[in-house]
Amino acid sequence: MSALDSGDRWLYLGAGRDGDLGGVSDILVRRHTSLDMNAVLLVGEASALVVDTGASARAGHTLLSAIREVTRLPLAVVLTHAHYDHCGGTAGFGEVTVYAHPGCRHALERGAGQVPPRPVLPNRECPARTELDLGGRVVVLEHPGPAHTDHDLVVHVPDADVLVAGDLVEQGGDPQFEDSFPDSWPAALDRLLVGHGGSPGMIGPDTVVVPGHGEPVNRGFVKHQREVIAGLAHRCSAPDAEPAAIAAALSVQPTTARSVADRLRALSAGSAR
What is the pLDDT of residue 2? Predict the structure, then answer.
C-alpha cells in the first residue's frame, strides 16, 4: 500500500510550480490520525525540511515514504521539542541532519517525562535565531522563550507567511502543560504576535499558523489561546485556586486547570525539570 493510501493525509498550503506537489514553494502539512499530530514538509529548489517526525520509528518511516512520493530532494529535520509524538519518528529517517534547540537534546539525553525510548539526538543546535536556505526559500528557526517546554522551536516561512508553531499552539484540544512554563508561555506567544527587541512578530493578519496538533489556525486563534493560557497561569497560582471553577470560566477541561496548578506548584517548589 502506498504511504498516501493510509488514513494520514497531506494538507497542501503552498503554491507549487504548475500545481505539482513537488514544485518549488510547496508547503505540505501531514495530518496524522494518531494524536491529530502535524508534521510539515517545506520544499525549496535545492533541499527540503521536515518539521517533526511522528511518534515512533515506524511512524517516521511511513512519513518518509509519503515524503518520497512528493519529492526526492535532500532532507533535513527540525524538532520543535522533545516530546515523543514529535520526535520519536526521527529514527525512521536514517542518517539525517537534525536541528533543535540545545534544551531538546538535553531533554532527550535525560530520558524523562514524554521523551521517546532510545531517541535520535539532534546534531545541529539552534540556541538562537537560525536561518536555513533551502534554495529559493529561507526559513527561520527561533526559540521564543520557555512555554510548552523550555526548548520550543518555531519555524517561520516568511515568503509564504506561514508559521509552524509546534505545541505552543494547539487546535482541537487544550494546550498541554506537563513540562510547561505557564507564567512565561504568554510572553513567548507575544514575541510571535508582536515581536521582541526591535524584531517584528512572525504572526501577521494573514499568517497561517500550523499548530502541533489540529487544523491550521490564524492570528485571532493564537491571540485567544494566549489569553486563555494567561488566565490559567494567573488564576491557578492563587493558594485557594479551584480548578473546576477556573476551567468553567475559561472553557477548558478541568484536567487542564489541575495540570496548570500542579505545574505551578512544582515550579515554585523547585522540583520541576
Answer: 47
